[in-house]
């Protein structure tokens, strides 16, 4: 796809001149998975060398789905829903990315900066091409959005709108796992995670049963953007641990689960899956 950086260029903490790349922006040190600024609580929880937490995440990191054929690290795309410099959804998304990295996932975070508002005339925009290519690369998504007027933000929904359900026989999201989290400026609610689950279902993505909603997010992060120790942080660890295992299991069977009678029939008759535009044109013919 035009405008998409090569893996070597994309895997960096800073974006390229055209705004793409910077998929490791969550890292404090480019070469150190799971790293970040300030207090490195993620490594502490993972190793738990002093037995402070009573357990560690090594068992989850060592988990293999029974009879697993896929041995490569799970490929996870992280999306967040705010453009603010002090974005709490980005801070939470970065913590999720760090946790998944220490568990063993190959993680890329996508920055919504520069992504145009959905417009069919802008299909070739570098940020659009990047987002779609990242989704095709991925085996799972982490979705983190603030709550705005009781719903997801426009910045987050715009990213989903750029991921069509189908483009010919290409399914940018179908069969990929999803996990949903939200941050709130005020008291806790679950409006966003409920809406994100509905979006995931519509995009044909199996959604992890666990989820996280962080109220008064401005109280839950320190000046370095790291989550303070709390029950909310423990819940985020729970969610990422479960999601990592969920993805390892589900990716083994994604192709089988997504094999549908109606689509096999369409391929047999037409030679491929048709786009929605082609289907609508056929109805008018």
UniProtKB/TrEMBL annotation:
This is NADPH-dependent FMN reductase-like domain-containing protein. Gene3D superfamilies: 3.40.50.360. It comes from Durusdinium trenchii. It comes from the Eukaryota. Residues 74-219 form the NADPH-dependent FMN reductase-like domain. It holds the Pfam family FMN_red. Residues 1-38 are annotated as: Disordered.
């Amino acid at each position: 796809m035009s405008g998409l950086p090569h893996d070597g260029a994309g895997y960096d903490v800073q974006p390229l001149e055209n705004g793409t790349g910077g998929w490791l922006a969550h890292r404090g040190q480019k070469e150190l998975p799971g790293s970040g600024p300030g207090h490195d609580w993620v490594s502490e929880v993972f190793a738990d060398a002093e037995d402070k937490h009573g357990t560690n995440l090594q068992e989850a990191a060592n988990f293999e789905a029974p009879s697993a054929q896929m041995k490569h690290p799970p490929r996870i795309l992280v999306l967040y829903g705010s453009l603010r410099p002090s974005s709490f959804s980005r801070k939470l998304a970065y913590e999720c990315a760090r946790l998944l990295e220490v568990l063993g996932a190959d993680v890329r975070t996508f920055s919504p900066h520069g992504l145009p508002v959905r417009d069919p005339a802008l299909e070739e925009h570098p940020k659009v091409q990047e987002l779609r290519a990242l989704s095709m690369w991925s085996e799972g998504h982490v979705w983190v959005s603030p709550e705005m007027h009781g719903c997801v933000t426009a910045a987050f929904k715009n990213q989903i709108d750029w991921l069509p359900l189908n483009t010919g026989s290409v399914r940018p999201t179908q069969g990929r796992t999803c996990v949903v989290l939200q941050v709130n400026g005020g008291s806790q609610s679950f409006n966003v995670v409920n809406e994100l689950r509905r979006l995931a279902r519509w995009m044909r993505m199996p959604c992890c049963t666990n989820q996280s909603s962080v109220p008064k997010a401005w109280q839950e992060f320190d000046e370095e953007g790291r989550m303070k120790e709390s029950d909310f942080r423990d819940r985020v660890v729970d969610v990422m641990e479960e999601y990592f295992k969920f993805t390892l299991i589900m990716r083994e069977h994604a192709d089988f689960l997504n094999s549908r009678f109606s689509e096999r029939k369409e391929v047999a008759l037409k030679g491929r899956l048709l786009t929605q535009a082609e289907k609508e044109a056929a109805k008018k013919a």
